[in-house]
Structures are given as structure tokens and as C-alpha cells.
Amino acid sequence: MNHASAPDWIGLRSPPVATRFALLGVVFAIVLMLDGPGAASSGITTRGLYGTLAVGFLANLLVEPLRRRANHSNALAAVPFCMDLGIVTALVHFSGRSESIFVFLYALVVVYGATVFERRLALLGALLAATAYAGVLLEDHWIHWFGGDRGDPSLLPALFARAGVNAGGLLLVAFLASALSGELHRAGRALDESNRDLGQLRRLHVRIVESLTSGLLTTDLQHTVTSFNAEAERITGISGEQALGRPLEELIPGAEVLLREDRGVAGRTARERLAFRRPGGENLHLGLAASILKDAESVGSGHVLIFQNVTHVVEMEQELRRSERLAGVGQLAAHIAHEVRNPLAAMSGAIQMMSADSMQGGPAPETSGEEQQRLMGIVLREIDRLNVLITDFLQFARPTPIKPETIALQTVVREILDVFGSGESGRVRVVEEIDPDLAIRADAGQLRQMFWNLIRNADQAMPDGGRLTITGKPRDPSSQEGSSKNRSEEREEGDVWAEILVSDTGSGISPDVIERVFDPFFTTKDEGTGLGLAAVHHIVHTNEGRLQVESAAGFGTIFRIRLPRVEGT
Fold it and tell me: What is the reported pTM?
């Protein structure tokens, strides 16, 4: 591993010029103390120290540009290293050699070399420093040797020992500093990679958020907007600067209800569609979805709201509903024409026969009277049949606005059962099990018609007798079995229900028929119009309820109705 490729952020990599001058300043202060009055100056050449410091200051100024480039080349790094080593050796030489207090500077030079060179070169630099120090220690002996005077040979072992210990220490310092520098380099490289990856993720996040074709905003736990993407600005006509820091309800009225805690049970995403008016006056429809924003510890720290302009979808739905209504009117007209034709034919035939008898004098008076009575009965029966048909049709098709009110469910059911019981033959046993305190919010007239149609349908399903059971009980969201929801349970989790079951022990409904029981004019009965259950379905949904049918051939039928319950009942 070549340390010269390490990033510039490593502090020891290339000490700033100010740091180097500060170190030279400390050395200068020490020299001043050594040159002061009363200071021991044996073997110290202050003039040489001052000259060395002057050279050091000047050399650092001249070599600083080269030092900046030394991070990328061992050859360039060797120049300032050798310069530092020479300056330290000169300081040791002029400050007493073996007694010098500047010997510690060799360790700093070796540490510096370990940070700019690879390990082998750092150890080589330590050997050079040890050699330079040994040369200073043995300087007097070398002078005497070349001068012909061998000096005191008894001092050589001690000097060699000191040089060897110093060399070992410098090599150890170089090894440890090189290892530390390597670890710093690896940590720095890992940090650089992490910072680079984090930067890429941050840029990717920004690009994703800004590229979304949906508006996206986030809020804190107090529902104050904390971010607002470009598509949100385009949809709402509100700039991000205007949106940040404002309450969500001020920006998108009605959206705050999505952030209620009870709208996100079990991690569900709350959804809503609401009308929105842009600052310019344009009316839109927004489709919104909200979820909890969690921090790194998976603790809720706010909310995320995603929304789209679904105005064109709403317009398409309205147009589709208009088309469906027109198609439904055509189908209803065809069915009514078919249903009316048979009674009219029977009435026409009876009236023609009565008219013929009258014109031809007719048979005997007693026979003529009985025949006319029979024919008149046919006319009256078919008139009643037409009346039932038109009544059921109007109940199904007439779009009268509902008038919801608080209704005691048990009272309404008992009223309808009283009317039903007054005309029954006793073949159907009625069981009513409704919580007496249960109250619902619905249109009273439509609710009575719903129960009457269901009870009449159950009675017709039991021609040989049976049992009709009507139960009613409150149902809270927490009491729903299981986690799966079908279409009859798509009401928001925060709402409460009154669940009503109308069950019979009749012949039941086969699987191939059960999906069509709520279709207008679909019936399996000879005398039925096919509008009773269609009207029930219309009434339940008009009153914001849900309707299910459960049945099997031979096992009876259960109609499960859920209507909004009044809180506290």
C-alpha cells in the first residue's frame, strides 16, 4: 500500500506551513532559554542554532509548494523529509550532540516520514535518522580518527549502545506510525467511500422525489409541512417556500383527517379523495394517501402525504355514471314494457269478453253474472299486479334525497314485524334479537321499506314454513375478525357499525344465482318483479351502509347489513 495516494484530509499527511513554523518557533524559544543568563551552555553553539533556525524558516517557505505536491510522489516527498532530517541533525549537533535536548525531533521526523511513505520507505527513513544521530554521537571520534588521534576507546561501547537503542526506538516509532497511518488511510478511504455513497443516495433521493408524477409532502407530528416537492407545487399552485412551516390544513383543507391515528391501524395507508381550490380559483379533485413517517429507530416522527390531481378521473366517473344511468333507463324501460304487457293482455281479453257478452245479449242472467264477476276479478288482479310493479319500480328508481336521523333500531323492526304478523298465516316463526339500546343514523322511511322487502322476500322463500330471525348488535373496528377486508368492509377503520342480520331457513340461493340477486328485474319467483332486493341494495348504499348475502341451496339465506351506528349505543 502506497501512503502517498492517501487523501489530503489526513492531518499528519502534510502538516500545514503554519504548524511547521509554530514548531520552529518552539525550538527558537528553547534556544533563547539555552542562551539566557545562567543557562548551562557547555557544548552549545548558539550561533549555529540561530543559523540553523534561520535556514529552517527560509527552507520551509521555499519548499512549501513542493511539500503540497509531495502527497502524490515519493520522490517529491523525500526532498522535504531530507531537509527536515538535516535541520534536526544540525540542531542536535549545535546543541551538545549526545547531550542535546533536541533528540526528540528525530522521532517527529520519523513519524512524518511514516505518514508520507509506504512502510518500507518509512523504515528506511528511520534508519537514515538513526544513522544521522549515530554520526553526530561519533562525530568527535571520527575527527580524532582521521586526525591520527584515536581518542578514548572506552567511550565507544556506550556510544554504540546509545546509537543502537536510538535506532531501535526510531524503527519502532516508524513501524507503529506507519501502521497507524495505514489504519488512518483505510478509515479515510472507507469514510470517503461512505460519503460518496451517501452523496449518491442523497442525489438519487432528490432526483426520485423531484421526478415523481405525484405531489409529495411530509409533516412533523404537529402536522406542520416539512418538505414539498416540485409536483406538489405544480398541482396546488403553492410554492415550496410558501408551504414549508405551515399547517397542512391551511394548504389542503380536509387532508388532516387522514393523519388521525385511528386511520392507519395495522400499518394501513389511509386514502381519501377531496375537493381542492387552487389559489387562482380553479377547482380540482385530489386523491390523497397518507402513511406514518418513521425514523431510523422505526418510531413515528411525522407523516408522508402523496396526492395526485384526479379531476379528469372524477369527470370520467361522472360521465360513466351518466352513461350507466342512460343504459339502465333503457333496460328498465324494456323490462317494464315486458312486465306491463302481460297484465294488459289479460285485462284486454277479459274486457273484450265482457263487451262481447253485452253486445250479443249474453247467456242466461245467472251465468252471465258469474262470468262477469270472474272476468272482473282478472281485471282487478292484474291492476294490483301493475300497481305492485310500478310501486317497486318507483322505490328503486326514484332519486329522492335521504333525510338521515337517529333511529332506535328495535322500534322500527318491531313496527314492521307487527304489520307482517297481522297478515301472516302462522307458518313462519319470527325471532327478533336486537340490542334495545342500539341506534343508527339513516332515513326512517327507507329503513322501513328495506326491512319490509327483506321480510317479504324471506317469507316467499319459505312457502312451507320456517323461521325468520332478525338480530342487531353494535360492531366496533377492533371486533372485526381477521385482517382481510372485502368490499362490504371498505368503510374507514375509524367508523363504528350496527350489524343487522336477516336470516331465514328457506330453500336458499344457488351459487350461480347469488351474484345476480341485487340486479333489477332478476327474479326466480313466478310472481316476483325482481325489484325488491334491488331496492334494498340501493337503500343500504344510499345510507352509507354495506350489504352482503350469504346462502347455499337448501340451507337458507342470511342478509348481513351494516349501517352507521350512533356513538355511545
Answer: 0.41
